[in-house]
Specification:
By secondary structure, the chain is mainly α. It contains two helices and no strands. α1 runs antiparallel to α2. The protein starts with a helix and ends in an 8-residue tail after the last helix.
Length: 59
């Protein structure tokens, strides 16, 4: 599996854990959904940035 996929799976597990914790704290479902969407976007941006191939040096 690529490092992008591994990073994204780990981030999704983190988001699920935070969502369950928010639910147990009786936070409204609408705000949990907003948080999940925002965190997914941040996770994709971070995974892309960390796994982006560097340009080879020009000779």
């Amino acid at each position: 599996m690529s490092s992008f996929g591994t990073y994204l799976i780990g981030f999704i597990i983190l988001i699920i854990g935070l969502g369950v914790a928010a639910f147990l704290l009786n936070i409204p479902t609408m705000w949990i959904a907003v948080g999940v969407i925002v965190l997914l976007g941040i996770g994709i941006l971070m995974a892309t940035g960390r796994t982006k191939m560097k340009d080879p040096p020009s000779t």
